[in-house]
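[recover] target loaded
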């Protein structure tokens, strides 16, 4: 009875913690939305929406460019899987759109979409350990290539404006990002496996054997993915190309809004804006952070705050265009899975 009571107490604590975390994320989500709205009102709603209207066909161009970029990211994920257990490229692309949509539209951190993506991949028949491992490696590759992309942007900015401020920014980025990325990689190695198992042993005790088996399976999948060097290298090259391709969004928007600039300027804005979004990963959709970052970055090249905020609004249009259908599809898939479980339970009772 005492063990049962402790189990119930643990479950109730876990539920309370999940509830409080959910409330915190919703509060952060709401606060970020208020911050974004406040920036628009501070800049003047008229100039902001006027710049959006001026963009015209530029909005469609951004939607098309984003669709190509996300599709390519889905293909990059596809190459990480072992040949015998690889889902279809189409499945990877669709789930990649879901990952992006969930991160952008739901009141969750910007890694919550990756958890949802792994869950949906499991519903499509991929082993859970492989689903989780593939997402972990894909996120690491994306983070590393994003760091390199930010470095390229800083180098381009330094070549345009050679001052101590830019050099200091480069140093800060390197000092903060390299240890974080290195730690994320080490955590996926055998030493990380031993640490996680030791931590779980202290938290849940030796009798809870199931988590240890799941961890062993996860690290085995991670090792198999990293052993596929060609697949990992292909994924790195595709993600790197996607980041460079994404700068075309900024280039197109500035051109359509009447602030023509070259690709280098667009590269600086896009790379550092993505770095800001990455740093604000705990803020759902990077609400407020993206808008404030674009105001600062665009000001470097003489683009007014109203146009910068218009650019942020336009960048969120593809999130709606692709994210809403993806989230609806996810809910339909979850509904079918629940119906299948209910049918199996009824069949078992019938026997």
């Amino acid at each position: 009875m005492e063990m049962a009571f402790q189990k119930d107490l643990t479950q109730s604590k876990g539920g309370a913690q999940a509830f409080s975390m959910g409330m915190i994320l919703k509060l952060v989500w709401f606060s970020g939305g208020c911050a974004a709205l406040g920036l628009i009102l501070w800049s003047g709603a008229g100039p902001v929406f006027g710049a959006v209207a001026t963009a015209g066909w530029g909005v469609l161009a951004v939607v098309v460019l984003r669709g190509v970029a996300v599709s390519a990211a889905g293909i990059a994920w596809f190459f990480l899987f072992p040949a015998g257990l690889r889902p279809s490229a189409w499945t990877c692309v669709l789930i990649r759109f879901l990952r992006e949509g969930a991160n952008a539209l739901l009141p969750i951190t910007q890694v919550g979409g990756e958890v949802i993506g792994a869950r949906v991949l499991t519903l499509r028949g991929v082993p859970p350990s492989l689903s989780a491992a593939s997402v972990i490696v894909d996120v690491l590759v994306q983070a590393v290539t994003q760091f390199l992309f930010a470095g390229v942007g800083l180098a381009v900015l330094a070549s345009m404006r050679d001052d101590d401020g830019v050099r200091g920014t480069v140093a800060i980025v390197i000092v903060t990002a390299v240890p974080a990325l290195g730690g994320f990689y080490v955590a996926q190695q055998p030493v990380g496996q031993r640490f996680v198992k030791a931590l779980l042993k202290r938290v849940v005790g030796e009798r809870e054997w199931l988590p240890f088996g799941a961890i062993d399976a996860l690290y085995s999948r991670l090792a198999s993915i990293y052993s596929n060097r060609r697949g990992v290298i292909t994924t790195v090259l595709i993600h790197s190309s996607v980041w460079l391709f994404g700068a075309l969004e900024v280039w197109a928007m500035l051109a359509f809004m009447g602030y023509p600039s070259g690709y280098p300027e667009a590269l600086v804005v896009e790379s550092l804006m993505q770095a800001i979004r990455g740093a604000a990963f705990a803020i759902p959709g990077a609400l407020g952070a993206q808008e404030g970052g674009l105001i600062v970055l665009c000001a470097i090249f003489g683009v007014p705050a109203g146009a910068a905020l218009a650019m942020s609004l336009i960048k969120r249009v593809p999130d709606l265009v692709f994210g809403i259908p993806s989230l609806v599809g996810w809910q339909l898939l979850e509904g079918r899975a629940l119906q299948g479980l209910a049918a199996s339970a009824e069949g078992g009772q019938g026997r």
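[recover] notes: Residues 46-333 form one domain.
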